[in-house]
Design a protein that fits this description.
The complex is a heterodimer of chains A (409) and B (310).
Chain A lengths: L1 H22 L14 E9 L6 H21 L5 E9 L4 H13 L3 E5 L4 H13 L3 E4 L6 H4 L15 E3 L4 H15 L4 E6 L3 H17 L2 E7 L8 H10 L3 E5 L2 H13 L6 E3 L6 H6 L8 E5 L10 H9 L10 H20 L9 H10 L2 E4 L2 E4 L10 E7 L4 E8 L3
Parallel strand pairs in A: 1-2, 1-3, 3-4, 4-5, 6-7, 6-8, 8-9, 9-10
Antiparallel strand pairs in A: 10-13, 11-12, 13-14
Chain B lengths: L3 H29 L6 H18 L6 H28 L8 H21 L7 E2 L8 E4 L2 E3 L1 H23 L1 H11 L1 H6 L4 H27 L1 E2 L3 H16 L4 H21 L15 H15 L14
Antiparallel strand pairs in B: 1-4, 2-3
Helix pairs in contact in B: 1-5, 1-8, 1-9, 1-10, 2-3, 2-4, 2-8, 2-9, 3-8, 5-6, 5-8, 6-8, 9-10, 10-11
């Protein structure tokens, strides 16, 4: 008897845990059944739970908005768009499992996501084998589109199904170094990264450019993702006499690092890439974050005339979470897929063809339209042709843009 | 090397935090030989309990008033969850093979995380926690103790002292020792062992709540995942000090904290070791230390106090 109650209890607890964790991924994606229309599903893969969920929810909602807008405008006659949003928790293995799941659903003709470059690496080949188009609104690692040897100038596109609407870290890292050295007049920087594909890559590109400009690297250190105590690293920063910190990584660690550097007594700004450009960074970095800097891809969405409608629609959409750093890019990524589907369907007498996935990939490479974030088009590597960047600074508990420019080498 | 005092202080503060959480692992293990892997989540619940208390207080309440109330609120939440877990998840499994409660503990840990994730408002990302304002205490030229660190450095020894007195002097404490030595005999001597076991869970949970408040005050934020890594580290500290030994938990915590802090600062200054230093390697060195200690002294640094178990 004892053992039966044991079994029942274990089962109940485990089931409870599984049910609860499943709640996250099953939201309101039960669209209305629309009779004659063909359903085309746009997959979404992003961290919908966990510490990066603020960004992930923004991505999911923006894609949802794009799909709803397309349905409302009857953008592709005879086609009803739906989204299927999967949670990768910023873990590469989950991303790969999600990619496999999306590939298996024959209604999926394209996917938006993921957030993290490291997750994208594990998804690319799954999508490539199934010739399913993937458009990331946020990946910035150069290797994803230009191959592992991009650093030596030997650029080779590894996967023809992968596209992105965000520009790369080569551009972002150099842009940050130029701003910190030329505009902010910092000459001695301490570089910290989180050992991830995105963070380490960005920190390396930044360091090389900063040295090339004539600056000094006062020291380097690495932190571990999900750790929260960086006080020892912060003391090393202080002891090094650096006048600024560059952090390659995401906002949970970046915010805490900024806070702890200041608590250690070094009143110097922390700069980072788009991974820290989030309101959550400001929450995490405590009181003394005034003057911290970040770069992010594109111009501030709020200032673009092209984004006014997006912002208004998003607000009208009643989404619980803000569109966050990648909302505009996610909308554009989804819209690029919708445009590709439109081209394919139009070329096939208004029906979705049998080899729709292959055709969508081909059509996507030629997409060109004015999106929320400016002109949306892809070059021969699948990279966006849009090289606009912005530096943001923390002022009065908000990110304020201080410099926007189109990057020039 | 002039940052050494500062690095030692960092390590001590981190270690005191590990030690406070480790008490919960070690007491429960000492009495029922169960590794309560949900203890990290008990710590996390303590943090959310404290945050709830803070939110319920009228805005503008001084931290001096708020913190004791937050500790009480956090402790109520974590003790309630821990005792409920004992009653409904672990007690039915008492006498079952050891693997069963271990699996339950892991399931419970995931369930508690998801519970906070799903039902606590805005807990899907980090939630801000009140922070100490003002400058850190300047002790020496090259040593400044941050307020949150001072808080944990003062509170941890006090908690330990109180626990030590309780266990060795009070009637319940002695009953606890007896239960740890031999539960069946203790029961025959008229000790209500069920009550003692609940007490062990409750004390561990209360200490975890204190640690959670210290953690929140230091980092300025808490999140539903924070129990995982800290719970693992605290468990390591408990093993390092000698699981089952309450003083060992504190010693293990401090040793672990110092090892992490010093390895970040100094390993890379050793010639030929540049590649193996810094924050990236701190966990490696902490666990290397654990392995070395367990190889040389399998019972942990202080050893298990109840040595005469059959």
């Amino acid at each position: 008897m004892r053992h039966r109650s044991l079994l029942i209890l274990t089962t109940v607890v485990t089931t409870g845990a599984l049910t609860l964790s499943a709640c996250g991924s099953r939201d309101d994606d039960k669209g209305t059944d629309s009779g004659k229309k063909t359903t085309v599903v746009i997959g979404v893969d992003a961290p919908l739970t966990g510490s990066l969920s603020a960004l992930g929810q923004g991505i999911k909602n923006s894609v949802d908005l794009a799909a709803k807008t397309a349905n409302k405008n009857n953008e592709v006659p005879g086609v009803e768009f739906k989204i299927e949003a999967l949670d990768d928790q910023a873990v590469p293995a989950s991303g790969q499992a999600n990619a496999t799941k999306l590939v298996a659903n024959k209604d999926v003709l394209g996917a938006v996501g993921p957030l993290n470059s490291g997750v994208a690496q594990s998804m690319q080949s799954v999508f490539d084998k199934a010739t399913l188009a993937q458009v990331s609104p946020a990946n910035t690692n150069p290797a994803l589109t230009q191959g592992d040897k991009w650093g030596s100038g030997d650029k080779k596109r590894p996967f023809k199904t992968y596209f992105r609407t965000a520009t790369t870290d080569v551009i972002q890292g150099k842009f940050a170094a130029q701003y910190l050295y030329n505009d902010a007049k910092k000459k001695k920087v301490y570089v910290v990264d989180d050992k991830q594909t995105y963070g380490a890559g960005l920190a390396a590109i930044f360091s090389a450019e900063f040295k090339r400009l004539g600056g000094t690297i006062a020291g380097t250190d690495h932190v571990t993702v999900k750790e929260t105590d960086f006080s020892s690293t912060a003391d090393k920063v202080k002891a090094s006499g650096a006048d600024s910190v560059y952090f390659g990584g995401q906002y949970p660690e970046g915010g805490l690092l900024s806070d702890q550097v200041k608590k250690a007594g070094a009143k110097i700004p922390t700069m980072g890439g788009d991974g820290i450009y989030d309101p959550a960074f400001i929450k995490a970095s405590g009181e003394a974050n005034e003057g911290d800097l970040s770069t992010s891809v594109g111009y501030p969405v709020e200032k673009l005339p092209t984004a006014k409608k997006f912002i208004a629609d998003y607000q009208a959409g009643g989404y619980k979470d803000p569109y966050a750093a990648y909302g505009g890019y996610s909308y554009d990524a989804a819209w690029a897929l919708i445009q590709a589907v439109k081209t394919v369907v139009a070329a096939n007498d208004g029906k979705v063809p049998d080899d729709a996935r292959t055709k969508v990939v081909e059509a996507l490479a030629k997409v060109s339209f004015d999106g929320v974030t400016g002109k949306v088009a892809f070059d021969e590597f699948g990279d966006t042709t849009n090289k606009q960047l912005t530096v943001y600074s923390v002022k009065g508990n908000a990110w304020v843009d201080v410099k926007s420019a189109t990057f020039e080498d | 090397m002039n940052e050494l005092p500062q690095q030692l202080a960092n390590g001590l503060a981190l270690g005191a935090l590990y030690g406070l959480i480790a008490i919960g692992y070690t007491m429960v293990y000492g009495i029922v030989q169960l590794i309560n892997f949900a203890h990290g989540e008990i710590f996390m619940i303590g943090g959310f309990g404290a945050l709830t208390t803070y939110i319920l207080l009228p805005s503008g309440t001084s931290l001096l008033v708020a913190i004791p109330l937050m500790i009480v609120g956090g402790a109520i939440a974590s003790v309630a969850v821990a005792t409920a877990a004992e009653r409904f998840a672990y007690r039915p499994l008492r006498g079952a093979p050891r693997l069963a409660p271990l699996i339950t503990a892991i399931g419970l840990s995931i369930a508690l995380q998801q519970l906070i994730w799903g039902f606590y408002p805005e807990a899907k990302a980090a939630r801000s926690f009140p922070e100490f304002h003002g400058e850190s205490f300047k002790v020496l030229d090259n040593l400044a103790i941050q307020r949150a660190d001072a808080f944990v450095l003062i509170l941890a020894p006090l908690c330990m002292l109180a626990l030590g007195v309780f266990v060795s002097k009070s009637r319940s404490g002695r009953a606890m020792q007896a239960t740890a030595q031999d539960r069946d005999t203790a029961q025959l001597m008229g000790i209500n062992t069920d009550r003692i076991i609940v007490m062990a869970f409750a004390i561990g949970a209360a200490f975890a709540a204190v640690a959670a408040v210290a953690y929140g005050l230091d980092k300025g934020q808490i999140n539903f995942e924070m129990g995982f890594i800290l719970g693992l580290k605290a468990f390591t500290a408990a093993v390092l000090g000698g699981i089952g030994n309450i003083y060992g938990a504190m010693v293990g915590g401090v040793v672990l904290g110092l090892a992490e802090s010093l390895s970040i600062a100094y390993i890379e200054e050793i010639p030929g070791m540049q590649q193996l230093g810094g924050g990236a390697w701190s966990n490696v060195w902490a666990f290397v230390l654990l392995i070395v200690v367990l190889l040389v002294r399998p019972q942990g640094l202080l050893g298990e106090r109840v040595a005469d178990r059959a």
